[in-house]
Specification:
Blueprint: H1 15-21, E1 29-34, E2 36-49, E3 56-69, H2 70-79, E4 83-91, H3 94-104, E5 109-116, E6 122-129, E7 132-139, H4 147-162, E8 166-170, H5 181-192, E9 195-199, E10 213-214, H6 218-225, H7 232-246, E11 250-254, E12 260-264, E13 267-271, H8 284-297, H9 302-316, H10 327-334, E14 344-345, H11 347-359, E15 364-369, H12 376-387, E16 391-397, H13 399-406, H14 415-423, E17 430-434, H15 440-446, E18 450-454, H16 465-470, E19 474-478, H17 486-494
Parallel strand pairs: 1-4, 1-8, 2-6, 4-5, 8-9, 9-10, 10-11, 14-17, 15-16, 15-18, 16-17, 18-19
Antiparallel strand pairs: 2-3, 6-7, 11-12, 12-13
Helix pairs in contact: 2-8, 4-5, 6-7, 8-9, 9-10
Length: 495
């Protein structure tokens, strides 16, 4: 029964329950229908002001593109291991072609991207320098898609819903979810017995009537109801009004640093924010929707799925740009004492962490090796490396890589053990395992400011030296501690 009061914290799922739920997300199958856009990020440096106008000149150094809008919901689903059937519309242009390639290249995605020749694909271009977004330029066509195309989209969406267990309608008001399409999609889902989650837009929610869950933020809730939402009691009253007016099963109000509040037939529950630090809230709503859908599709109860979505959002806002949360990151966030093991990350997670550090103006160092049977010589090198930078990333050869480089008898310790020992050192801030024979791919992903190797190398023999110097980095040769060698130690043991 809805009492209008926030339920006690004992009703909120515990971390142990959530940790057990994370692996289940890989069983989820979700249909996503909504507005797709291309997010283009241009990163560079600002060294001077334009003589033409009082604006900074960005010397662009690199560029990245990502699917945004409903495409980011899909990215979040696949990052959690879930499968997605994605239905959307793009224009017959270069950006539309890029999106078709990006979406089609994601594992676990069945894409149904329809092309409307008269339409311009939505493009958002962000210019970033010194860790700050300087400008965003939007190119878009928000007119509703044509009637015949909408009918075709509805037929395809019905097939996608039939093959999945939860449907997400991601409305960014860019023309795909227009007119009566949202209502028709919800009716189709009802006939198939599928749950519907709506990420809404605008002030008129009549088209979303009957949805199982809607996810407005605090501002959107105020606009949709015309009510004040400044206090907890006001927010709950507005959510109750919205739920009753449109027969929603539940209203989940996202509130940035204040967490989120769920109002359903059982009453109201508040979930405090779980972010350790906030860098960028871009795309956090997509993370909430994607994780919530994956949770429900994998059989989780609504409060458990909401808490999991809250934790995933906390992971994402600690990253730069439109980001995603991965299962290992969600598990780490749920672990009260993650300790050294939190330092062991994938290449993608390492790149994201390095970008966060770079936004703080920190100097990033990198070294690499097999680090089999860690000895005082290794520790001496790592401590020198850390003294030369603000954060040190260690690239660690995986087991197969070590066998190719050192022979069939190596490594003595498996990569998990070697990584754990490295991560326990105070001098090491991050450990990333790579399977290639050289760290070039990892270096390209991280683009460190400093590449450190032992003085038994020369600048010409250091793998990656030319690449690091090409993007403005430096090479540092650390002094060696005599008398220490893994090969010599093994020889003594065998002797």
């Amino acid at each position: 029964m809805d009492t209008g009061r926030v339920q006690p914290s004992s009703s909120v799922p515990a971390a142990a329950e959530l940790m057990a739920a994370v692996p289940r997300l890989a069983t989820a199958k979700v249909a996503v229908i909504g507005d797709l856009m291309l997010d283009r990020y241009l990163y560079g440096t600002v060294r001077r002001i334009s003589p033409e106008a009082p604006v900074p000149i960005v010397a662009v150094e690199r560029e990245s593109i990502l699917p945004g809008g409903a495409g980011n919901v899909v990215r979040n689903l696949t990052s959690l291991g879930s499968a997605a059937a994605f239905v959307s519309v793009v224009g017959d242009d270069a950006e539309g072609g890029e999106l078709i390639g990006l979406i089609g290249g994601q594992p676990g995605v069945e894409p149904w991207l329809l092309v409307e020749s008269s339409r311009r694909t939505t493009l958002k271009v962000r210019y970033i320098a010194g860790g700050q977004q300087l400008l965003r330029a939007d190119h878009e066509d928000t007119t509703p898609i044509g009637e015949k195309l909408a009918e075709r989209l509805l037929r395809i969406a019905a097939d996608a819903m039939a093959a999945t267990s939860v449907t997400v309608i991601s409305d960014y008001a860019k023309g795909v979810i227009g007119g009566k399409l949202a209502a028709s999609l919800i009716s189709a889902a009802r006939r198939l017995g599928r749950k519907v989650i709506v990420d809404p837009k605008g002030t008129d929610y009549r088209g979303y009537a009957g949805a199982d869950i809607v996810t407005p933020n605090r501002r959107e809730l105020a606009l949709a109801t015309g009510m004040s939402v400044q206090t907890e009691a006001e927010l709950i009253a507005a959510a109750r009004e919205l739920r009753a007016a449109h027969s929603f099963g539940a209203v989940l109000v996202t509130q940035a640093e204040d967490g989120m509040t769920l109002l359903d037939a059982a009453g109201a529950q508040h979930f405090p924010a779980e972010a350790a630090e906030v860098f960028d809230v871009s795309g956090a709503g997509d993370t909430v929707v994607g994780t919530l859908a994956a949770g429900l599709a994998s059989g989780l109860m609504l409060p458990t799925a909401v808490r999991l979505a809250n934790v995933a959002a906390g992971v994402v806002v600690g990253k730069v740009g439109t980001a995603v949360a991965r299962p290992e990151e969600v598990l780490a966030a749920l672990t009260a004492t993650g300790g050294a093991l939190r330092k062991i990350v994938t290449r993608e997670a390492a790149a994201e962490q390095v970008e966060r550090w770079r936004r703080k103006g920190w100097r990033i160092g990198f070294t690499n090796g097999c680090f089999d049977l860690l000895h005082p010589g290794h520790v001496h090198l790592l401590e020198q490396a850390r003294a030369e930078c603000d954060r040190l990333v260690v690239g660690l050869n995986g087991d197969a890589s070590v066998r190719r480089l050192k022979g069939p008898g190596r490594p003595v310790q498996p990569e998990a053990a070697r990584a754990a020992v490295l991560a326990s050192l105070a001098a090491v801030d991050l450990v990333a395992i790579y399977e290639e024979d050289t760290p070039l791919a990892l270096l390209a992903a991280l683009r460190p400011d400093l590449l450190i190797k032992g003085a038994d190398y020369t600048r010409e023999t250091v793998v990656g030296a030319a690449e690091v110097e090409e993007w403005g980095g430096q090479v540092f040769l650390a002094e060696l501690l005599p008398g220490h060698s893994t090969t010599a130690t093994l020889a003594r043991l065998r002797g």
